[in-house]
Description:
The complex is a heterodimer.
Chain A: H1 4-14, E1 19-20, H2 23-28, E2 43-45, H3 50-63, E3 67-70, E4 87-90, E5 97-101, E6 106-109, H4 115-123, E7 127-128, H5 141-147, H6 154-157, E8 164-171, E9 176-180, H7 192-196, E10 204-212, E11 214-215, E12 219-227, H8 230-242, E13 249-254, H9 255-265, E14 275-283, H10 285-301, E15 304-309, H11 313-324, H12 326-330, E16 336-339, H13 349-362, E17 366-372, E18 377-384, H14 389-408, H15 427-446
Parallel strand pairs in A: 2-4, 3-4
Antiparallel strand pairs in A: 1-2, 5-6, 6-10, 7-11, 8-9, 8-10, 12-14, 12-15, 13-14, 13-17, 16-18, 17-18
Helix pairs in contact in A: 1-3, 8-13, 13-14
Chain B: H1 3-16, H2 19-24, H3 36-40, H4 49-60, H5 68-76, H6 93-107, H7 112-125, H8 129-144, H9 147-154, H10 164-170, E1 186-187, E2 195-199, H11 210-222, E3 225-228, H12 238-242, H13 246-261, E4 268-270, H14 273-279, H15 282-285, H16 290-302, E5 303-305, H17 306-312, E6 321-329, H18 333-337, H19 343-350, E7 353-357, H20 373-376, H21 378-395, E8 399-402, H22 405-417, E9 425-428, H23 429-437
Parallel strand pairs in B: 2-3, 2-4, 4-5, 6-7, 6-8, 8-9
Antiparallel strand pairs in B: 1-3
Helix pairs in contact in B: 1-6, 4-6, 10-22, 11-23, 13-16, 17-19, 21-22
Amino acid sequence: MLDPSIRDQLIGIVGKQNFNDSNEAKLVYSYDATPNFQSLPDAVIMPENKNQIQSILKICSEAGVPIVPRGSGTNLSAGTCPTEGGIVLTFNRMNKILEIDEDNLTVTVQPGVITLDLIKAVEAKGLFYPPDPSSMKISTIGGNINECSGGLRGLKYGVTKDYVLGLEIVLSNGDVLRTGGKLAKDVAGYDLNNLFVGSEGTLGVVTEAILKLIPIPETKKTLLALFQDMDAAAKTVSAIIANKIIPATLEFLDQPTCKVVEDFARVGLPTDVNAVLLIEQDGPPEVVERDIKVISAICREGKAVSVKIAQSLEEAEALSTARRSALSALARLKPTTILEDATVPRSKISEMVRAINEIALKYDLRICTFGHAGDGNLHPTCLTDARDTEEMHRVELAFEEIFEKAISLGGTITGEHGVGEMKSPYLAWKIGEEGVAAMKAIKYALDPKGIMNPGKIFAKDTRKRVVL
Amino acid sequence: MNQKIKNEIQQGFKERLDYDELMNCMRCGFCLPSCPTYGQTDQYEAASPRGRIALMKGVVDGIIEPDESVEKQLNLCLGCRACEPVCPSGVKYGHLLEEARDIIQQKKKHTWPVRVLRRVVFDELFPHKKRMKRVHYFLSFYQKSGVQKAVQKSQVLKVLPGNLAQMEKILPNVPSRKEMKDRPASLPAEGTAVRKVAFFTGCLMDTMFNQTNNATIQLLQKAGCEILIPQQQGCCGALHAHGGEKNTAKRLAKQNIEAFEALEVDDIILNAGGCGAILVEYDHLLKDDPEWKERAAVFSRKVKDFSEILVEQNFIDKELSLSNQVITYQDSCHLRNVMKTSGAPRRLIHAIEGITFREMEQADQCCGSAGIYNITEQEMSMQILDYKMSKVKATHAHTIVTANPGCLLQMKLGIQREGMEDSVRAVHLADLLLEAVNNEGNL
């Protein structure tokens, strides 16, 4: 329960219509896209500018009220679930593209801009913003920055952090911090851009961002390589990279994933083979032609039973769009889908795929795998039912083994979804107690009262280690 | 709403809402951009499909009570079902919504004017063809006797709440008693019959939009169809099912199934997406009725929009032309999202010589008509309509084509609100096609 005087002060800042603590509002801002996490906030607040956010944070800081910044709630690690109550802060009224600077190749945006809207707006000017998380048609740039979202094009073009040039951030005490700028080079002190990107809302509230743009590739081509042997498909991924070709996209889908995606999207994905690689190359036409030829040859050598090239841009686009629906489409099969995004060095991809299959067998679970194979970022997804506690326990054990395996191969517990609350018990496995201590030191230097998205990234000692 | 009613609604949700379906929503949010009310409420999560499913599940799980705000949010949903085709998990949102609304309506105590109105509309009027006709004779008299002009001049309509006065103006010219003859049980094809089909007349379509039904029948005849029109058919029950009167909807469904199942036809044709959507889901409506379930499924499989059959019968090869004009097409939500017909109407319009077809942005989004939504949720409906008209205007269209009576009236209302009566018209696809096939410019 929010103290009535705090409530009045908050209403005073944003107006009655932009503060909502009805049962209805509390319920619909109690979740994100992470299964089995739900917790009611005390209120939802919808500010319209930086000044309002400064005032809100000052009040909440003094009163010790948690602040959970939330974009569109597509988070997959419970990062935007208000597990400790408090105020959910939304950016639906801060959703403008402020400037597309064609001289400096930058775009300046407010955090509530929908990723796909941004991509379309810059493409209309012949420019390109590559980070393309699967949720891009609804995710916000603010969310992408806080999670350092990846996507299908990460392999060749990098992820969100590679495109953030400058940020405006409101700190928990209400101070405003400006980092970076429209600069290709800038070493004035610590690289605070990279500190805030991926900080999951635990350090401050991003209120504006300057993003880097690049010229849009002239053309692109997409192919599907079909395999009966999953291992052969995974080895082909490594072979393509080892041949010094970096495709724009190199996605892996196993048979069950292909089946459900095809069931939903009807784009002609094969459903009778055990694994499919969806590969896209972009660039000047002659380079694309040459690379696609070489990639086709590598796939055939790698025992692909068939290699199909998309005949038109529309067909290619339909295939990538269908791939983006994979996780949600898998939800067709069972009531609960729990996915992870363990990531390994790309040379280890076949070993990781094999390990996931063995672990699934060991714990008698149904785990489907798809993901950004080209950058080693896989999405093993367990199909289960949250009501079956016995099976849920096995799911927990299986994912622990998957994390362990990934780390032992030189990988990480999360490539692009963030630690959130879901993976916080495993953070120390990847970065060690020293790493956790260093991160906590940063956290409390910037947010001494701990009001910024509490309970995320760092597991509480008192909490039992759980997957869910 | 008192505590007892809240408890009863909660119990109803627990017993009747399909929990597996509620869990099937994995909350990815892919539905959000397709939802008109989410867009019009500055992206308020509660006004989205994901939010509404969460509210229903929240009630079942006992996290919240089914209070007025929950009911209000469920009522604010247009039921356009645009969220379903874009849902990768395949959540049957429409079924959940319909069930939840039905439970609330059954448990709720309406005020007496609402009770009377619901009774008149749902029980006394729509299910009875003769009474529907009588209302229309009255309307016809009203329009043709000069009373309408006098009334409009006298400005007494200004006392009507909200947009009802505007709506009165856009009512189509209703055919007189003489023009509205009973239809024969069968009509021959023009030339050799190559296909035998049954025609679902609907209630509004056969009274207020009688001419559109006539046009549709003529088009089918021209396409080589022999047409059977069973006399025992009645209202489709869509308004009832969406309005929380499921039992009446079921009764009407059975009446229609009986009327059509004796006929030896593979296709049941109609020209109203709103009716079609419930007809193709009679099997779902009657899923718990063992005697009717299979019969309903047989019926539902046969239902098709007239545009589909025209395309199948190569109607586009006929000579079709119209004077130079820009045409745009507004999808009927239920035709598109439930009957899955969106290509055929466009192909037919494209086939007309002399016109320019210009697709409007978000033609697949609801116009705000949504059955009786433009009366029950006027404010949101008009907000959505104004947004829609901004998209229409961007095409510079002279003609807006739709394929459902509710959408047609709403488009007419939109034209009027924008003051574009002199330059823009709204027509049903069947009327447009008849105009195009009969055009004197054709050789």
